[in-house]
């Protein structure tokens, strides 16, 4: 039987989701916890990688089990008791045996939090930029993202992907509560893509480039032409959409 976990985590203390040597990851922490709860070695497959320090208010992962979890509420309670305070399991559901948390995702949504006024309560959870920025100009530039599918210019170098094509569904800045948020949705994302897009848009908003600069950046397919990569602490994975028939009725 295959189970889907819905969880959230603050990535400040982790070197991303994926297990790696000599560094603590969310995946490793989760696997140790679930294996302890179920008294069985469990391998967990996540919906994708996240970079060091990146957060997820919504993340999904699946694992296989040869017996049914009879009391899901009890499982969630025990798991959250074992997990550190910066990781929380929200839900668990039985899914189809061929379901895959990464490859079955139809879309993902990220948000990047940026504040232009000093706020001690956001210092570890957003990017504080001490500059005047034209967010209207940045929104006009973001519209250009819909005209392209090849985003190699925003991808981390030496990546192992076979294609740089992404279908962007949404990309815009808005002011929420006391900070600015860039929200972007697509069928897939390249490594470091969102942080590179935000850095490029910020340079346009600062007046370093015109809106048309984004066309040149994307057409170049060269990461060195794009803007800087903004700090990880402002980035959040906020949603993942799967086919409606993925869950099984229990």
**Global outline:** globular
Number of helices: 5
Query: How many separate domains make up the residues?
Result: 2
Tell me, rounded to a whole number, the average pLDDT.
Answer: 94
The CATH topology annotation of the largest domain reads as Alpha-Beta Plaits
Oligomer class: single chain
Structural class: alpha+beta
Percent of residues in beta strands: 25-35%
Quick one: how many beta strands?
A: 9
Output the radius of gyration.
Answer: 19 Å
CATH class of the largest domain: Alpha Beta
* Helix content range: 10-25%
**What is the H/E string?**
EHEEHEEEHEEHHE
User: Which architecture name of the largest domain does CATH use?
Assistant: 2-Layer Sandwich
Distance between the first and last residues' Cα: 12 Å
For the record, what is the CATH homologous superfamily label of the largest domain? Pseudouridine synthase I, catalytic domain, C-terminal subdomain
Low-confidence stretches: none
Structure in words:
Helix 3 crosses helix 4 (193-205). The protein contains 5 helices and 9 strands, in the order E-H-E-E-H-E-E-E-H-E-E-H-H-E. The protein has helices at residues 26-38, 72-82, 135-142, 193-205, 213-220; strands spanning 2-9, 45-46, 55-64, 87-95, 107-115, 127-128, 168-176, 179-186, 235-241. The model has no long low-confidence stretch (mean pLDDT 94). A hairpin with a 2-residue loop joins strand 7 (168-176) and strand 8 (179-186). The radius of gyration is 19 Å and the shape is globular.
């Amino acid at each position: 039987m295959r189970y889907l976990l819905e969880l959230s985590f603050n990535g400040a203390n982790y070197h991303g989701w994926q297990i790696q040597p000599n560094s603590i990851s969310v995946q490793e922490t989760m696997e140790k916890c679930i294996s302890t709860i179920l008294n069985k070695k469990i391998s967990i497959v996540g919906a994708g990688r996240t970079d060091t320090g990146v957060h997820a208010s919504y993340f999904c992962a699946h694992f296989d089990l040869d017996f049914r979890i009879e009391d899901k509420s009890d499982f969630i309670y025990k798991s959250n008791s074992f997990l550190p305070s910066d990781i929380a399991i929200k839900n668990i559901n039985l899914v189809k045996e061929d379901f895959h948390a990464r490859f079955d995702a139809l879309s993902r949504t990220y948000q990047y939090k940026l504040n232009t006024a000093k706020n001690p309560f956001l210092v570890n959870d957003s990017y504080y930029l001490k500059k005047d920025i034209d967010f209207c100009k940045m929104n006009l530039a973001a519209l250009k993202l819909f005209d392209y599918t090849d985003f190699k210019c925003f991808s981390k170098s030496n990546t192992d992907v076979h294609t740089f094509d992404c279908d962007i569904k949404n990309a815009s800045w808005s002011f929420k509560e006391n900070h600015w948020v860039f929200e972007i949705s697509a069928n897939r994302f390249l490594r470091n893509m969102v942080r590179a897009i935000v850095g490029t848009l910020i340079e346009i908003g600062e007046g370093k480039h015109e809106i048309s600069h984004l066309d040149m950046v994307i057409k170049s397919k060269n990461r060195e032409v794009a803007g800087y990569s903004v700090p990880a602490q402002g980035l959040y994975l906020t949603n993942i959409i799967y086919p409606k028939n993925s869950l099984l009725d229990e």
